[in-house]
Amino acid sequence: MHRAFRLVILVLSLAVAASLTKAEINRLSDRVIFVRDKPGSGLKFQMIINAGCLDEAGSQCRGLAHYLEHIVLVGRNPQHKDAAVRLFGDGGANGWTSERATVYVHSAPARAEGPRADLEKLFEFYAARLRDFAITDEDAARERNVVLQEHDWRVQSNPYAILARDRRRRLLPDHPSGQWVIGTREDIQGFTVEAARAFHRNWYAINNAWFVVSADAEPAIIKEIADKALAGLPNRDLPHRNFSVKPALATERLDRETSSPTMRRAGAVITKVVRISETDRDRNRAARLILGNFLTSQLPGSLFEEFIEKRKLAVDRPFASIERVAPETFVLTIGLNAAPGVEPAALLDAVVGYLGTLPDNPGLSDEALARLKRRFVQSREDIAQDPAREYLSIITWLANRNEYEKYGAWPGVVGALVHEDVRALARGFAAPGRMVTDIITVKENTP
Amino acid sequence: MNRAKSSLALALFGLLAASGAQAQLVVTQETTLKGIPFQRVHIADSLSQSVQVVWRDDSLKTDPNRLWLRLMAPRSIAEGPAGTTPSSFSETLKDLRSEFRFSIGNTIVQFGAQFRKGSEGEALRRIATVLTNPGLSAENFAIAQKSTKTSLEQEEQNGEALAGKLLFRYLVRDPVQGLALQRYPPLALKGDVEGIRSWMRVRLTRQGMVVATAGPLSVAEIGTALDELLAGLPVESSKAPSPEIRLSPSHGAVFLQKQVAQTVILAGGPGTWTYGADDVLLEIATASLTGGFSSRMYRSLREKLGATYGVRGMDEALSDHARLFMIRSAVDHNRAVYALAGLRAEYAKWHADGITQEELDGVRGQLLSRLAERVREAPAVAGFLALAASNGVSMSSLDDYRKKIEGVSLAEINGFIRTKLPPPPLAIAIVGPSPDGLGAACAIKALQEVSACAE
Fold it and tell me: Does the predicted model carry a pTM greater than 0.90?
């Protein structure tokens, strides 16, 4: 606790000094977005490659995109003496990879002379990385083991994570959306630099990248630096996206019961993939947002209110998510920890029943939907007043491969949602589909 | 190196210049009409107003008869006031764009409320009753107790959590305190809602309460809000005495055999820093050792050996008077021997020689950048002020603290590392499948066997 609060010490004056005004967003070129930050703010820079593990070769999401992210950040290239994670001794650097994107993240402190020198370095470095990358065999092998350790730390150390990964594969056995971004131990051990280079050749192109920058600087300066560095980078034809292939979808239900000495928390998880027509993708996306917010809320009829507060079948916070895993193909996942004394199988039955009657859930009322829409629109208004939050919001939007042109209109789309949009989505999830469930039981005498 | 120094100096100049225009952002000491003293930072254009309240209590972490309070009270209090359901309370606050948080740390109890200007009346009336008339449903409490016990049992399946418990048990030899420190699952089943109510009556009181605010409300407005929120609390407090904790000066290694995904190494020892006065130095020291891609341990364990994904440095207050400095890494089983040797060697060198000017400059810049992002909103400002005040640090201006950061010299930070952080060799707790080659003087198969490892 002490340490967490000490972290806020250093720059209080700066933070408080900043005045809240409407964030100024500038699209400086086709691929460069600039959010002007408050006076005295440092530099923030992210390069988004719109390719993640779903885009790996052979429709297999094995974690290669993530491995490439690592080796780009630790490799040594002509543009820098040290690894990219240390481009600035007094700055920050990192990266992350998702199903749809690989993102490189940098920051540097505010400098009296402005961010020009730092930005030139960053744009020069990443313009070069759109062309190629270098890594020694020794560094690549070492980093492969680092990725393996990351996997073991994030996944292998958590029996519930292992179960969830396996559940996902059972749900979508023939589609890369059924695999996890980090891959499996076996996948990681098989990574090669050649395979990473092939992925790089396919997807690291200027027309598949975004640069999002935030600083206290004139937009013209940022534009000048970006234009100079990115000039001459050719657009490339991108390969076919694996995402666009709809997975086979048999209507069936696969149940599994698991018990392990390492799992002391009983519970039930249901995950279901369905086909839902999406004549208007934007409205569908908005409906997913609102239905997801309803499920994770504590409003009447929500999972919390129903299973924890009223029926006392579950404890802690429920988990719920809705994903679009391919065109017209959606996955709903609900997870609940069983309350003491409640049989996980009974909890699962109750959740299945809840899902089956979701379209008729009285909690999905006009009033509830209006509350949820209002909250979202208000939160967007808050974000629009804070350049730091706006910057991150744009990055999230682009990294999910949404069209930049639709970013500004998004709150309006959510605000215009009608009751039937959400009901239609709920009907889709209640309809027959492919359902995979897990119940986790705990034997009391397990040591 | 020269360029780095130059850049840092310019960066600091830039920051100073930026804040120089905001000299009006001072911390003022105020008192409400009902006599509640508080610190205030006025942020005219902040979207929300924040109130943060801190009470000190270091008696819960190491007392097996009171640990349940630490585990259960935040969860029960979060359910909201009497006369409403947890869900209804939570959703109403969301509609009001307000929230409250209640937490119990190792040595402090913290309450925070955040609300919009204009809706403070209704929001605060509701939040205030959380403290003065909490719901504390006995039925929900009983369910939550069992659930918490299950969570603690689950915790024992995790190598990192187990290593922490092992090191505590190894260094804190009092078996009663050790039971609490290892978060022995049945301890969650002690206590009841009346116990929470009694503790709140004597601990969450106006006496000993530190209050800080940040946001757009005027002095009069925030004063009225604080009276609404806090004036109804009992006046007199009663605090359990600070526990006496004897930390073993052990330098040995203890090994717990368990089939875990990675071998977890946790090194640690008692430190003598003072929270509040030494915060900046501790932060710089920790960051230089484990804080990122330029840190000593990152370079040694990840970049050189490829043995781990990450290394984490931690400080932990066991009480107001006892604290531990620790370094933890989950490493490849096959490289654990090298990782342990690397960790020991790197720590010994760092402790003896200290850090370089380049490292100091780099860490300083990183902290400035990172922290600038974390403190863009009122709750973080108020939280910082409240915690600093509870640690005996008072400020007349927010710039005071920043100047302190800027003034840290190489001699000062290296002196701090040498004198306030534990000298090598550190005690080591290891959790893994095999003790082979790790040099542990004591290898056990269950946590409770640790008493056999006393030197």
Answer: yes
